[in-house]
Design brief:
Helix content is 53%, strand content 8%. The protein is mainly α.
Length: 324
Amino acid sequence: MLASRSLVSSNFLYFPPKTPNCTRTISLIFKKAASSSSTINNVRPIKAMRCSPPINKTGRCLQICHSSQDPEENEIDDNTQSGGAGGNWTTSVLLFFLWGGLMFYIFNLAPNQTPSRDMYFLKKLLNLQGDDGFHMNEMLVSLWYIMGLWPLVYSMLLLPFGRSSKSIIPVWPFLVLSCFGGAYALFPYFILWRPPSPPIEEAELSRWPLNFLESKLTAGLTIAAGLGLIIYAGLAGGDVWTEFYQYFRESKFIHLTCIDFSLLSAFAPFWVYNDMTARKWDDKGIWLLPVSVIPFLGPSLYILLRPSLSALPISLSSSTTEEN
């Protein structure tokens, strides 16, 4: 996009010394030219400018023009252009070091006292081990299945407003990998994410996966399943919790799964706020932001109550506009 240019036309006019008060209004027209063609496609409204001409010693009235555009808007635009990129890179660097520290902890410092038992638990949870009379810990079972629901919650938060218009890297491969790697697989996308999200085509609303992820039925079933799993774990006795804590201290599989759950819960409020502001619902739904801190249930409740995309004004892409 070419830089916007403005043309101000003004003259120095002579006024008698006895009539020092003079005002004059001129117009400033902004034009935006598309970088891909020479056709002007957008013209901003005319901005009126007020001129307050002081009198110099020679009796001439000099015109000093003041833009009627909101000075706060100019300040915001300047800050966005000058500091936005730096802030994004700073956040990316911090996330990269956090991810690197987690990887170092996983491979070097995490407890790994029972690798054979970890493999046995994994087979039992995947139903690859026959019924041998062993009773699985209720906390572990609930954690395992609720970790399978987290990728669905993040898919509903990141699509479509978690996509990046300033990066060629799509979000869906990371969402697929999160089904196996959880937050550890989503971290690289968080590092590479560059807002804002690209425009949404009107046809996307009726296609997979948006039609599934935006469905209130999907959101209702997700929060109902998560609530049932949490109640199942909460009704377990104290000995079950003690046993699970012992597993956490000894098992690398359970230890990393608990950290994964904590990371997904910690990052969820940010993506809730990102989705909320993109849907222009931050005035009515702001009370759900502190609620989203509640692990799993908070983000799921927001997804259930948020307005659907069909009720929002959709920015059509250039291809859709050309077809119309």
